[in-house]
């Protein structure tokens, strides 16, 4: 991990101009834990490049709450773990100092609300799925949502969906295991519902079938 250095004024996607003034830039290696529950550091971070996983952990199980992407804002002052799942660059500032910046720059507030809102929605959906749905329905809902947010419709009703997360990451988000998720994807591929191209591209042949699977309780 490289040393922390002063941040120049740059523009990130979805970040208001001038917002990074006063932040320090830090590079994180894959697997680096930026924050853990009870960590004495109290900082606000903005993701520049890469991806951070926000998760809870018990003695033998981890549960992912969200993945932070470039432009997202988060804080280490939470009872969660923050892990770089790929080489990642972040901008850091002490929370107290950021609070003063927030008070003087109203443009920051919508960015904060967007990320916190997404985390809240993810947490509520996760609780609902764990309480009322089996793993096949959870996975179907996840893939349907991914197609609707990031997918691109092709001819014949097929959807091309970029798959940025690995099978283990998806399993962690769904409160399942890599083996279970992989088995379901293989079964749906045999059933003609979807087709995988490598590890990063998914073709969904019948989105309505996934919606029906996701509606099962």
UniProtKB/TrEMBL annotation:
Keyword DNA-binding among record annotations: yes
Domain annotation HTH crp-type: ranges: 133-208
Assigned keywords, A-Z: DNA-binding, Transcription, Transcription regulation
Keyword Transcription regulation: yes
Entry GO MF terms: DNA binding
Residues annotated as domain Cyclic nucleotide-binding: 31-74
UniProt cross-references to PROSITE patterns, sorted A to Z: CNMP_BINDING_3, HTH_CRP_2
InterPro entries per UniProt: cNMP-bd_dom, cNMP-bd_dom_sf, HTH_CRP, RmlC-like_jellyroll, WH-like_DNA-bd_sf, WH_DNA-bd_sf
Gene3D superfamilies noted in UniProt: Jelly Rolls (2.60.120.10), Winged helix-like DNA-binding domain superfamily/Winged helix DNA-binding domain (1.10.10.10)
Example GO BP: regulation of DNA-templated transcription
CDD domains: CAP_ED, HTH_CRP
Coiled-coil regions listed in the entry: none
A Pfam family hit: HTH_Crp_2
Record's protein name: CRP-like cAMP-binding protein
